[in-house]
Amino acid sequence: MQAVKMCIAAACAGAGRSAGEVLLVAVSKTHPPEAVREAVRAGQRDFGENYVQEALGKIAALADAALAWHFIGPIQSNKTRAIAENFRWAHTVDREKIAVRLSDQRPEHLPALQVCIEVNVSGEETKSGVAPEALGALAKSVCALPRIKLRGLMAIPEPSTDMALARRRFRMLRELRDDLNRDGLALDTLSMGMSADLEAAIAEGATIVRVGAAIFGERKSA
Ligand SMILES: *Cc1c(COP(=O)(O)O)cnc(C)c1O
Question: Partner of 113 for a Cys bridge, out of 148, 161, 165, 182, CB 3.0 to 4.6 A?
Answer without folding.
Answer: 148
